[in-house]
Design brief:
single chain; 311 residues; alpha+beta; Thiol Ester Dehydrase, Chain A; eleven-stranded antiparallel sheet; two-stranded antiparallel ribbon; 6 helices; 13 strands; globular
Length: 311
Amino acid sequence: MNEFGFSTAISTDGSVLSSPWCAPMQMLAEQSYDGHASIHDDATAQKLGFRGGTIEGPTHFSQFVPLGVSLWGQEFLESGCISAHYRNAVFEGEEVRALLNSPVAGSTHAEIWMEKKDGTEVLRGSISLARDPSETALELRVGGLKPVGQLVILRDIRVGMRSKRQKVRMDFSQNMGALYPFSLNQKLQKITQPSSWYTPQGGSSTPWGKPIIPMEMISVLLNHNAKVDPFPVRGSSVGLFADQEIKLIKGPLFVGEDYEIEREVVALSESKRTESMWVRTSVYRPGANEVIATMLLNSASLKESFVETGH
């Protein structure tokens, strides 16, 4: 186990660093929203042409954290950023590994990707420190988006729409609700790259004297109450995460602490199969206005799953 609580064996092949092969586990089979099952449910996914329920994208972020820590140490846990475009779904039982193209000496920005054993690319993006001046992978993607045509599911959404500030918190035994029907304790039993710094027992040994929230669970913290004060998406449809970036600025975020969040629609996009809403969630300490972390999430709604509800 290294000084940051990880026991991850990192391999080096030339300039490429890689995590061990891991088989992430499905924890969203019981997820529901808008009164129906999600893309992580086998039957729902199969109706839409997927092999089965998909592993949620941010689950894969855990395999990149030890790589970031190997480059930048504690600073990555305080102000690290993972920015990824999800390219292919992963299903339970499949093994994947995270890869990183080592940056030149002194650089705080690197290219990342993830692959299956057959070479299929799962995601591609960037890993960096918040202070790095380079554009992240998703900042580049948003900057290159084309104007959208006539949207249907997102017809009533406008760039610049903001939600009210909401309180969020994650305790170890707290069930995170219909969108995330499990607790942090349950996740820690299945997380691909465990660290003692994530646990109640090891939290007191961190530099901050308390346990930190794993980066993949920051996604849960910031998205679990997305149906409270929601943006006016029309009808009912099955969605998936197409792009996601989690950036710590003045972190880490801690288990058992209160935070406040605000959401803003920063872009809209579409493809033949999807309509997408890009939302940036900003994290604050209660009553403060300094942003301490952000999440940029492209939630893509599958057009073929859209059902008009009359609202």
